[in-house]
Amino acid sequence: MCKDFLYTIREDSTREDSEFDVTLGPKKTSITYEDYLALNQMREDISVGMNRVEFYKTLIRCGNAPSSEIDLKWKCNKKKHAWQANYQKIRNGDGCPRCSKSSKLNTYTTKDLIEDLRNEIQQLSEELALIFPERLVTKHGNKYSDQTLSKIWGRNEKYVSSYVIKRTKEDPNFTIKEKDLILLKENIEKKLGMKARSCSEIIKKYQNNGLNTLQFIDILEKELGRVSGELKISDEELGMILTGTHGFIKNVFTRIMYSSHHSYNPHYKFSKERLSEIREFLNEIFGNKAKKCIELIKKYEKLNPDLKEYSLQQYTITRPNYFHNIEKFPEKSYWFGFLSADATRAEKNGRITIKLALKDKYLLEKFAKAVGLPIDRIKFRLIYRRYKGELKEYKTAILRFACKPMGMDLDKLGFRSTKNELNSLPNYVVQCLSKAKKKSKQEKIEWWQTLSGKVALGYLLGFYDGDGTYKGGKSAGIYAKNKTYLNHIKELFKIKNKIITTKVPGEIGLVFDQECTLKGCYRISLGPKLFEIMMKSYDGSLKRKRLLKKKVIIMD
Questions:
Q1: Do residue 56 and residue 97 come from a single domain?
Q2: Who contacts 140 (Cβ-Cβ below 8 Å, separation ≥6)?
Q3: Segments forming the whole domain that contains residue 96
Q4: Are residues 286 and 391 in contact, defined by beta-carbon separation less than 8 angstroms?
Q5: pLDDT tens across 485-529, in order?
Q6: pTM of whole model > 0.85?
Q7: Fewer CB under 10 Å: which end of the chain, C or N?
Q8: 540 and 429 assigned to the same domain
Q9: How many angstroms separate the Cα of 36 from the Cα of each of 20, 55, 82, 92, 250?
Q10: Please, are residues 52 and 16 in contact by the beta-carbon 8 Å criterion?
């Protein structure tokens, strides 16, 4: 079989039994009509569309063109479509373009989704420059190269490097002609539209002698890289944006493409759990600009209705009924209070997500050990959010798991999927508090010293660690989105302090620089006495929100 050899054909090649010659340098080889027919036997989906004479006439007409430029006729066995394609493409696996297009309309692979997301995110170049400032430069200069700038200028590809930069190094006083600057400005505006404004300002600054020529080229190339959307987004960058990990995309592609991989699966699909995570990351980083990316994820879900709910499709908790008999264990009550404040639970699959600052990772590890989850389920994530006009980087630790038995227990205890639905303390807390006060009278002890009292306070301590604030000493408060919930706490724990409104519901405000209608937020200070007895209910709570011990200085 031939590859990209050059054809040299004899005049009598149109005879039914003839062959034609192919010349490759000093060597000589040949290909026959049978090579064309051989693909018919190799491929079940296609047939040849030319007889021997038509085949040879086509080659003669094309002269010495490479085989990759000679289109031969083919037929589709499925729907009898006819089309033309070169021999090499068919041998490499190409098929009927019409059937392929029809099939693709109803097929959307994981690889398709990744590449489409890459293309969409690449257009958000200004945000990418904030997240990855180093992406604008390389060890050898700007990523938006001299060659690329030359092209947008409308010159040959060596114009910037071989003329502008070379002339400037020879003569430091060299300046670019005004007509050339006008041409550059017009071409950039034509290509980038509104995004060209910052580039126009750089050109104007150069015209006003605010930059020398080398500075001008350097700064302009960086700015074009920042706003143009032409810099390719790498696998590492895409992985950080979609999941907060550098190796995510590489791992997925390796799993899909390499049979030697231990989890090789050419038809690998994301779970709904993973897609939910990707959505969350995209919204946090790009806000409303992530709309097209979210639509691509919806398309993937629609065309892949068999997606698993979560990656492992099984729970790995060794203590799925951990919260049984919660009224007897202050530690269990603490964790339920903590989950009530800081965890979210998906309604469809029951997946629980807890996200903490990386410095508090040890608390997640403690929870994982308590319920019997592997510690390696806790993942490190970098999260980007806009705050006061800047894109901030937050280092977080995330634990995600699903367990139907535990989910059912949480529901029975009064867990709410959203904080707005939380309007009262759990029944077991109310009952434990009542029981503690009765026992206090019977045994002549403080109510908070009883087991039931510690269970009630354990819940409050857990909620405080999740949604509370500590200002040093014994000054602490709890936040909630539902004022009724704080009223219940105030009533049961006899708190004298007033509830403060920190965000008025219904008002328009900014949340991570995005304008929205506020749902309301309220705070109540616990008071020093309640803070002190709450801390005594469970000593394994969040360290940075406990009473700071004074340092004792020993003098020699």
A1: yes
A2: none
A3: 33-103
A4: no
A5: 999 999 999 999 999 998 877 766 655 556 666 678 899 999 999
A6: no
A7: C
A8: yes
A9: 13, 9, 16, 13, 38
A10: yes
